[in-house]
Design a protein that fits this description.
The chain is globular. The chain folds into 3 domains: about 5-30 and about 155-255, Glucose Oxidase, domain 1; about 40-150, Orthogonal Bundle (Enzyme I, Chain A, domain 2); about 260-580, Phosphoenolpyruvate-binding domains (TIM Barrel), CATH 3.20.20. The strands form 2 sheets. Strands 9, 10, 11, 12, 13, 14, 15, 16 and 17 form a 9-stranded mixed sheet that branches. Strands 1-8-7-3-4-5-6-2 form an 8-stranded mixed sheet. It is an alpha/beta fold. It is built from 23 helices and 17 strands. Helix 7 (about 170-175) links the parallel strand 4 (about 160-165) and strand 5. The structure holds phosphoenolpyruvate and magnesium ion. The site of magnesium ion has 5 residues, from helix 18. Magnesium ion (MG) binds near residues 460 and 461.
């Protein structure tokens, strides 16, 4: 549906800033093929129509490859595999034959052959071939859309000046976002801590998500304003709204420029407490960008993104090169590299996971790594080898108890000994830390603190599991309350346990990057934050505007309140006067968080 009139939609403010441009609708949902029997004299016309759709698909793939150029070598390999599949006799000749033999239309025939090719692939023992099923689907979908006259677009095909509108983005689409010239993003699904939201913030891409029906009401070519700070999307806005937003966008960029000018200055509170503000990255080549935004080192490198958008797993050597580059670029500031965190909402097509009813609570992250040592060992070896080149810290995600930590330590010691025996000079074992992101780990933080070198609090998952709210589900987004008393108590216990054991405790979940929570976190005793690039200058400025003793007093008041909304109300009232005029309201306005 394409609405001509203007309309305003409200969603979740996922990444700040304002984008104004033409909508580009990316529809990833599967198309339902029409099914029709044909007469014998329609056969040749139907086959010709099918051949034309295959040729058109080839042409589209070639065009995408050209557009990607040298920048997308890994993605190009995937496209070449897809091109080959367009000549696959089983898939393409098979569909033609079926039109002839069964007298059915081309869409139906293609659907049937795709199904049998997929089934065949799933019976092949070789993992590589089994995993080609996703490619078969992708190629068949493209041909099907060409047959039906609807086009399937890759994220990288989108032209400049566009605002991307979609129902959802796959993790692989999301990882390719940085290669596109899109100005902003609006999605039907997603929550504040879904990975699309995280990546949008990291790329300073204004985004509103969880809009539920945005992909139904916006058509390609509509004029769209994405207000990522207020969580609003305006479709075909009235002239006065457009002008108002153009001015607001200008004021926002002036406010940002003023902040960015101080990004490299340290974050020291008014009463002289230095706070470390590090950055989160998904890919090794984001390191420079994050450090330029003022981050003091990397507090979280989500290494699983290296496994996406490619045909085969990265081997030890490739991992080593990526990790080494990050560590060398960070120098004495150091980098914390997290081991593979796949499963749940982060899927990697060629890592085979069992079909599970509840993948968020299934065989994922560390659980998967401990079970599949062929996956884990190369990564641990690559990390150990890279640690020779700088301040590398190893962090494991999704720890639920002590046994898992001890298993990692054993494996790490084995890999260390193995490398030494191979003649690799490894003077010392790097620091080993854990993500505290499951309620069970939070509850035994005192026990775990004696076992590891540092903690990093992952509030995205901690909130998801403590409050039982799927982080990517827009229907329960209203329950996302980092200031829930249950959370505050957990955070207090984790920080106290870390302090008593004398280990470093940082926070790298999205809560750390939201300036609304900075005062409370300082009050709790947090002195190490890690966040997306866009938040670094803002949070640093907020820290420079605060007094730790005032934050401690605010926390004491907050801890005495019974409900999240009472605490949010308290913080939004107090934060304005605490910050004074030290930060532009265009960039951060505590009142906009009022419940
Ligand atoms: C978290 O859970 O808070 C976290 C930082 O990790 P991720 O968002 O990658 O799950
Ligand atoms: Mg997590």
């Amino acid at each position: 549906m394409n609405l001509v009139g203007s309309i305003t939609l409200k969603g979740i403010a996922a990444s700040p800033g304002i984008a104004i441009g033409r909508a580009y609708l990316l529809d990833r949902r599967r198309v339902a093929p029409p099914k029709r029997h044909i007469t014998p004299h329609e056969v040749e016309a139907e086959v010709a129509r099918f051949n034309e759709a295959v040729r058109e698909s080839e042409r589209q793939l070639r065009e995408v490859k050209l557009k990607l150029g040298a920048a997308g070598t890994e993605h190009i390999q995937i496209l070449e595999a897809h091109e080959l599949m367009l000549h696959d006799p089983m898939l393409v000749d098979g569909a033609r034959q079926m039109v002839r033999d069964q007298l059915i239309n081309a869409e139906w025939a293609l659907k049937k052959t795709t199904k049998s090719v997929r089934e065949l692939f799933s019976h092949i023992q070789d993992e590589y071939f089994r995993e080609r099923r996703a490619d078969v689907d992708y190629v068949a979908d493209r041909v099907l859309r060409n047959l039906m006259g609807t086009s399937q677009t890759a994220v990288t095909e989108i032209g400049p000046g566009s605002v991307l509108i979609a129902h959802d983005l796959s993790p692989s689409d999301t990882a390719l976002l940085q290669q596109t010239p899109v100005l902003g993003l609006a999605l039907d699904v997603g929550g504040m801590t879904s990975h699309t939201a995280i990546v949008a913030r990291n790329h300073k891409l204004p985004a509103v998500i969880g809009l539920e029906h945005v992909s139904d009401v916006i058509g390609s070519g509509d004029i769209v304003i994405v207000d990522g700070s207020a969580g609003l999307v305006l479709v075909n806005p009235a002239l006065e709204d457009l002008q108002r937003y153009q001015q607001q966008a200008m004021r926002y960029s002036v406010g940002r420029a003023a902040l960015d000018a101080h990004a490299q200055e340290p974050a020291t509170t008014l009463d002289g407490v230095h706070v470390r503000v590090a950055g989160n990255i998904e890919l090794h080549d984001e390191t420079g960008f994050v450090l330029d935004s003022g981050a003091e080192g990397i507090g979280l490198y989500r290494t699983e993104f290296l496994y996406m958008n490619r045909d085969a797993l990265p081997d030890e050597e490739e991992q080593y090169r990526h990790y080494r580059e990050v560590v060398e670029r960070c120098g004495p500031l150091g980098a914390t590299l997290r081991t593979l965190d796949i499963g749940g909402d982060k899927l990697v097509s060629h890592v085979k996971l069992p079909k599970e009813a509840n993948p968020a609570m299934g065989l994922r992250a560390l659980r998967l790594c401990l079970r599949e040592s062929s996956l884990f060992r190369p990564q641990l070896r690559a990390l150990l080898r890279a640690s020779v080149h700088g301040e590398l810290r190893i962090m494991v995600p999704f720890v639920s108890g002590l046994a898992e930590v001890r298993a990692v330590k054993r494996l790490l010691a084995e890999c260390h000994a193995e490398l030494l025996a191979e003649g690799v000079a490894l003077p010392r074992l790097p620091a080993l830390g854990i993500m505290v992101e499951l309620p069970s780990a939070a509850a035994i933080a005192d026990i775990l603190a004696r076992e590891v070198d540092f903690f990093a609090i992952g509030t995205n998952d901690l909130i998801q599991y403590a409050l039982a709210i799927d982080r990517a589900n827009e229907h329960v987004g209203y329950l996302y309350h980092p200031l829930h008393p249950a959370l505050l108590r957990m955070l207090q216990f984790i920080l106290r346990s870390g302090a008593e054991a004398g280990i470093r405790v940082s926070m790298c979940g999205e809560m750390a990057g939201d300036p609304f929570y900075t005062a409370i976190l300082l009050g709790l005793g947090l002195r190490e934050f890690s966040m997306n690039a866009v938040s670094v200058p803002v949070v640093k400025q907020v820290i420079r505007s605060l007094d730790v003793s005032a934050c401690e007093a605010l926390l004491a008041e907050a801890m005495a309140l019974p409900d999240a909304s009472d605490i949010e109300h308290l913080v939004s009232e107090r934060l304005g006067p605490m910050l004074g005029t030290r930060i532009s309201r265009e960039v951060f306005d505590p009142m906009s968080h009022r419940p």
